[in-house]
Each structure stands twice: as C-alpha cells, then as structure tokens.
Amino acid sequence: MEKGSFPGMGLPCFLTDAFTGEAFAGNPAGVVLLDEPRAERWMLAVAREMNQAETAFVLPRESGFDLRWFTPTIEVDLCGHATLATAHVLWEEKRLAPEDTARFHTRSGLLTVARTERGITMDFPSTPPEPAEEPAGLLDALGLTRGEVLRSRFDYMVVIDDPAALRKIVPPLEAIRKVKARGVIVTAPSDRKDADFISRFFAPQSGVDEDPVTGSAHCALAPFWANRLGRSRLTGFQASPRGGMVGVEVAGDRVLLTGRAVTVLRGSLDA
User: Fold this and answer.
1) What is the CATH number of the domain that holds 35?
2) Domain check: are 110 and 139 in the same one?
3) What is the pTM of this model?
4) Catalytic position from the list 22, 40, 54, 117
5) pLDDT truncated to tens, each residue of the chain (271 aa)?
6) Which of 7, 24, 52, 53 has the fewest Cβ atoms within 10 angstroms?
7) Would 5 be classed as within a structural domain?
8) Is 54 labeled as catalytic in the residue annotation?
9) 45: domain range?
10) Contact 166/160 with Cβ under 8 angstroms?
11) Looking at the structure, do residues 141 and 228 belong to the same domain, yes or no?
C-alpha cells in the first residue's frame, strides 16, 4: 500500500488522552493523519490494531477536515473524546494555527472545535433523552432495583439517586450487549465538589466494555441535568477507573463540551 507523504515515513499517528490535563488519565484515542482517502476496511483494521475505544481518521479538505471514528469493531456516528484528541493533535502538529477553529465534516454534520480559556471546546448536536420503556432485564443487569429509564438518539440512560451505587456497578457484559442501542449510560447526582453529576458508560455491543470518558454521552447528559438542576453550564465527572472531567453548556439544540488533552505517543503507521 502506498505510504504517506513524508519521505521514508508512513502516516503520522498518535495516542492522545482526552478530557484530562495529565497523561494516563481520561480517555485515550488513536489519531491518524491521512494524506488521501482510505478504505473503510483498512480504517477498521487500523482501529482494531490500535485497540482503543475509538481511533479517529482525519483528512484535509477545502473547508476543513473529513473526520471518521472507529471502535475496534464498528464505525460510529459521533465521538467526543476522539474529536477533542484530533483537534489537540492538529494544533500540536501545526496543521492548524493556534487561533484557528477546527472544522470537521462528519456523519453527524459539521462539528467545530476551538481553543478557549477553559480548554478545548467542541460544538456538538444535543441528543436529549426521552422517557422510555426499560429493555428487558436492564436494571437487573446493572444490579439495580430501580432507576429512571430514558432513551437518547444513540443510547439508553438510567438515572439513579445514589452515586455510591453507580460506582459499584459491575454489569454482566453479555446482558448489556443484548440492549439494542449503541450503549448504556448510568448517571447520578455528584458526590464530588468539582462536579454537578457523575456517569458511567457501557457499550460492549459497540466493542467498548466500559468507555473511560464519553464526550458524546454528555450530549444527552447535559440537557437532562441542565433541566433537572436549572442551570445551562455544568461539569460532569465520568467515574470510570481512569476518570475524566467534561465541562458542558447547553446552547439551544447544541451542547458545548470542554476538556483538555495530552499526547502520550507519536509514531508512524507503515501498513
């Protein structure tokens, strides 16, 4: 297969931790800078090799960049942490000037990302959840006796009152895999002083058993908690073992997601 545009090198690739200001926390994403369009089968194979929750593939175009996201098993329609990681890499590698706004053309439409005083801010579509019927056995699979069940564009959401119970969840992944959705969000009021709500995200049906920090899930969490708490600007903490903070602001039918990122690995993709 033809190599990248750098003499003696393949395509630049990166491993970047998103929604964190320190290495080895937050959510790691692979980022591959393309020099030409690549086949979907090839991108899926690379994502499987990278073995991260998502790997982003970015290709320059006249009005910004084409951006696609793959888990080790499927292409997804929207991914927050890999978008944040991609923008961070483009600024770090001087593919974008510091003051430039990144414009990504994706399966979820145009997404813009800018540097702000709070960090890196992404403008994403809101996916407000609506009350839904519980998929058979979902609460039992989560070890819960009760919970408010909702459905967003991509995921089921279960709202509970006890953050300690949320932290203790160890779901049987085979049961969660049967839920007909991208994944399952579980959320509760925060027990931390630096966050307004906490959450976890399970998506074995998408090739991700538990995602460390899920930006796109906050497109549903933000409008839900903004309505419940009566404020448009909030902070969420995703209580996975790695953990990560996501600033959210509801702006009409959009959600502004803010976080930081750290690149921990740079390399060359030679396949």
Assistant:
1) 3.10.310.10
2) no
3) 0.93
4) 54
5) 333 334 446 999 999 999 999 999 999 999 999 999 999 999 999 999 999 999 999 999 999 999 999 999 999 999 999 999 999 999 999 999 999 999 999 999 999 999 999 999 999 999 999 999 999 999 999 999 999 999 999 999 999 999 999 999 999 999 999 999 999 999 999 999 999 999 999 999 999 999 999 999 999 999 999 999 999 999 999 999 999 999 999 999 999 999 999 999 999 999 8
6) 7
7) no
8) yes
9) 11-114+259-269
10) yes
11) yes
